[in-house]
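Notebook B, p. 112. Complex prediction, attempt 2.
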Amino acid sequence: MIVAGIDVGSLTAKCVLFEEKVIAYSIAKVTPDLENTAKAVYSDAVKKAGVSAEYIVATGYGRNKVSFANLKVTEITCHAFGAKSIFPSCRTVIDIGGQDSKVIAVENGVKNFVMNDKCAAGTGRFLEVMASALNVDVSKLGELDEKADKPVNISSTCTVFAESEVVSYIAQGEKVENIVAGLHNAIASRIAAMAKRIDLKPDVVLTGGVAKNKGVKRALEEILQIKILVPEEPQIVGAIGAAIVGKNYASRGRKSERF
Amino acid sequence: MRVGYLCTFTPKELIDAAGFTPVRILADSTPISLASAHIQSYACIQARGSLEKALRKIDVDAVVFTRSCDTLMRLADIWEIATKMKVYSFEFPTKIDSTSKNFLISEIAELAKKLEEWGGKITFDSLKESIELYKLLEVELAKIFDEKPDYELLFKVQQMKVKDALNELKSREQKKSKGGPKILVTGSVCPFLDVMKLFEDVGFSVKDDLCTGTRFFTFKYPEMELRSVEDCFRYLAEKYVSKAECPTKHYEKDRRFERVLELAKDCDGVVFLLLKFCDPHFFDYPQLKQKLEEIGKKVLLLELEFPVIEQLRTRIEAFYEVIMC
Ligand SMILES: Nc1ncnc2c1ncn2[C@@H]1O[C@H](COP(=O)(O)OP(=O)(O)OP(=O)(O)O)[C@@H](O)[C@H]1O
Ligand SMILES: [Mg+2]
């Protein structure tokens, strides 16, 4: 059976067409019209795959706005199933998206989870604000991090105040590379504080768009003192998980729209 | 006259018997602006929100502050300075043991005196009647909540005379529980009805240990005949020290933990619904969470300031999936 997983996040929408493995996927920016955003990524993925889905699962913030989905599941469950399908040894998932970061303990499904509170510190949004203050592209943050020799200390956990710190470092003539690495360390320490609230067991898998940033992986490995696995395309892990949950669910012959 | 109170250890019977209307003061979604001049942003939203309401517009003439957490005690001082309302601090004992009852009786007598100073009149007959009516109300509310919690009703009856509250109960239809996995929601106050509704929307059947829930009406009633005002004071003291446990009090043994663990027994999970910066609850949280996990309960922590409903929904739905998985 071909299943579609559609993850409508706070910043991006992802769609995966899945049979035994990923057939095709698509990533798009989220617009305020969530239903149409979901339709657009879905048709794009269908176009790439040349087949459409028999069963559709929606996840992410916008899941309840995807009226054409057969099933709606939270992104916490989906990231857990997605990460485990890619790395069967996975016991912990760290998902860093645009607005939320989560640490998920995985067993057969989700054992436990912690999410950041509503402030943006420790999320992709935080890095986007800082990247624009530094006038660099978010996709370049990883390379800059590699060239740092002495990361600065960012002590504010609040995005707004951290930006003032960045501005102050720029004014002091600090190297951009060192500021970037300092920001990655700041994010990692926020995540580590969350991870302490659940039992962090290896292997740890990093997912979400921010996982594409090698600097964040580096900082997390340093602070958690643990090796971190990153899937080839970390941003679609939630959508893959949605498809897998849907496959299991449909094969058990269940019909309700909720898990 | 309408007499406000924030803490549910306030003997509302006295206020009612004095001829006043006891009114529970709760924060709402009014943005905090005026209150910021008087109270720091790292006080809970119940304290800041209530003060904000008081500074804007609130239909209350006097407030009884009952000793509970530090924030509420300091709020009493702020209220006295910043508003034109009459303010009285009722010293409920912090340590609940054999010596506290006599102390509480004398405090109750003082509060009665104050209410008379404010123009009320407490007689043996009026006090006995208020005591009896509150017991009726509380027993009825307990029955309703046993079947299915109704927070809207509970919020409503805290804004009126007990007689009217009993009439309100008569005219309602009992709602049936939709079933679903059972959770215990524990915490301090949750002044946001839409948050309470989320648990049910997501598919849980709810039981609570909240100050804006069952803790409002959970007492053990002393067996004694009331023949004088003094008897009534003694009765109230006994009733209120037996009230459902609150983390702002120190009990002999671990009465509060025991209650929460007992309530959790037939539940699939426990949600800590805590207001950000609520010291008494957060100090208890790590230990209580551990004890709940030891008896096999899944635990979720939700921190509230002004609620962001969709963020809360995701957390509660994910918790539902954890339990159903
Ligand atoms: N190549 C890249 N390098 C660095 N960061 C990236 C890259 N691509 C995307 N990101 C970051 O990933 C974030 C978006 O991630 P993702 O798509 O997982 O979020 P989301 O699912 O929409 O959000 P949420 O899960 O919080 O609702 C953005 O903040 C973006 O800056
Ligand atoms: Mg996401």
